[in-house]
Amino acid sequence: MSVSAKRILVSNDDGINAPGLKILEAVARQFSDDVWVVAPETEQSGAGHSLTLTRPLRVRQIEEKRWAIDGTPTDCIMMAVNHIMADNVPTLVLSGVNRGGNLAEDVTYSGTVSVAMEGTLCGIPSIAFSQCIRPPASTKWETAEKYAPEVLKLLLDTGWPEGVLINVNFPAFEPDEIEGIRVTEQGRREMLGNNIEERTDPRGFKYFWFGLGREVGIPGHETDLKSVREKCISVTPLHLDLTHHETTRKLAGKLAKTF
Predict the structure, then answer these.
(1) What pLDDT, in 10s, does the model give residues 62-92?
(2) Phi, psi of 116 (to 5 degrees)
(3) What integer pLDDT is reported at residue 195 of this predicted model?
(4) What is the sign of the dihedral through the CA atoms of 66, 67, 68 and 71?
(5) Using CA atoms, how far apart are residues 28 and 31, in angstroms rounded to an integer?
(6) What is the Cα–Cα distance from 185 to 167, expressed in whole angstroms?
(7) Long-range contacts of 150-155 (CB under 8 A, 24+ apart)
(8) Residue 35 DSSP SS3
(9) Residue 154 in 3-state DSSP?
């Protein structure tokens, strides 16, 4: 069943002034004349699905249908759905376009993906978009700009089940190098081999910088990591139900007991 793009909410984790947000807003306007932007006041990369509970939130209206929140990406969706747009909630939530891929275990840390998670929890079809990067090369925004409308149209026409969000990653290549679109599984990196670089600041104090772990290949599996490496756009359906049903059935036969 197709998904309605009648009223679109656009958000991100890179902040209200991020170039990727402008790209996604322009893409959204190709599908609807009722586009709202509610995004963090400042960059919130790595915020995950966090929610602000220990301080008040400040809300700034920039112009009609455009708002900035001094909180997390999740705060933005909660404020949009339950306050700013409460009288007429969006029919579609779009997140991004993030500067940097959100692949494999990134989805558990990503504020970009968490926008789509929160939208899905609110019962609204949601999609996260990310543009992979390969430093020191410049960000290939033109790749996301060219292909996001096509990917979005295919997803809206096809539809997806309730409780599922869609995670889209554009490879870090020029538009004319992209070889196709693949529906993929979530990949995996070697977290125990994570790169933690120790440095020293100008005052002589040590500090640390996190890097990504080694990619783990899964034979016979079409993962998001593999797809973008092979110059294909990755489209990964993610399910919010984290229950491992096979283990549930196994444990129920051993542990279930009445006292």
Answers:
(1) 999 999 999 999 999 999 999 999 999 999 9
(2) -70, -35
(3) 72
(4) negative
(5) 5
(6) 10
(7) 150/181, 151/181, 151/233, 151/235, 152/27, 152/31, 152/94, 152/127, 153/31, 154/181, 155/3, 155/127, 155/235
(8) strand
(9) helix
